[in-house]
Amino acid sequence: MDINNIIEQIKPIDRQKVEEAQNRFDNLIKPVGSLAKLEAMVSRYAGIIGSADKKSVQYPKKALFLWSADTDSVAKAMQEELPVVLLAREAKAEVYPLLVTSCNLEEALEEGAILTKEYIVSDKLQMLALGSLEKYTLTEQTEAFLQLEGIEFLQKLNDPVITAMTGAVLQAAACKVPVMLDGIATCLAAVGACKLAPVVLEYCMAGHVSAEPGMEKLLNRLELSAPLKLDINSGAGEGAVLAFTLFDAGIKAYNEMETFAEAGVHAEVEEFAHSVQVKGK
Which of 30, 69, 155, 166 is the 20 to 30 Å CA partner of 97? Predict the structure, then answer.
């Protein structure tokens, strides 16, 4: 599998559908913008799938991909000994513990991409969360690497797990599958993917602000805003799967709440609006 072929398949999301979805939220019988980040996530999803029709904007089939190069950690995840497995189950997401076996950069990129496409296709996955069973912090050296362009960033990091997740992010975007990011490791993978294909960022969402050192700096660099800050100090996917439940709440509101038009309520005429009358006094 050639990673460049995958990159060529990644297309921008449909901005018109994003606006249409946001317009529907704005016209629901509720204060405008009151669902905040839930609206932003669902509107982004509409742009990714290319439809703002509520018949199409349904609960996606979700999964958490847990990456590690440590066989013991992967075994614990497979035996459901990790808290994130229970949280994922509550969020109606399957958990896929994935052992990274590649040593060099090219192989790790391809390994992440191949595994991701295999499960997306075979299990018809429509939304992914990424997590890592390794421990990470944003060191000064890593921050310096952020200034590098293209593949050189991943070369300097020299981390097979992050590189494999970079391949996963690229492949998910090529398949039009959104990715919920978790901690430091997944954000570094998103940075790596964006350096290879900037449009990838349109497919990424931030699940939470982890308590890992440097997390907020990375989110700022990615220009992503997370809906949760729970002081979770690992990047194993806990925050991402919890964000799944918020995303589903946004889907529920999008589909089950009525707009003024659907409820047969006339929209307020601006010149007779209370705010305008008060201003004119």
Answer: 155
| Cα three-residue angle 86-89-94, rounded to 5 degrees | 120
Contacting residues for 60 by C-beta, under 8 A, at least 6 apart: 45, 126, 127, 178
Angle between helices 105-122 and 160-174 (to 10 degrees): 40
Say which residue the tokens 């847990």 belong to. Answer: 66
Rounded CA gap, 213 and 275, in Å? 45
The pTM of the whole model exceeds 0.85: yes
Say whether pLDDT at 220 is over 50.
yes
Tokens of 155: 């070369």
Residue 89's H or E segment, with its range, is helix 83-90
Q: How many residues does the chain have?
A: 281
The structural domains of the chain, ordered by start, are 3-9+60-247 (3.40.50.10210)
Sign of CA dihedral 233, 236, 241, 243: positive
Closest C-alpha to 129, from 77, 187, 82? 187
Backbone angles phi, psi at 228, to 5 degrees: -130, 145
- The one-letter code for the residue type at 119 is Y
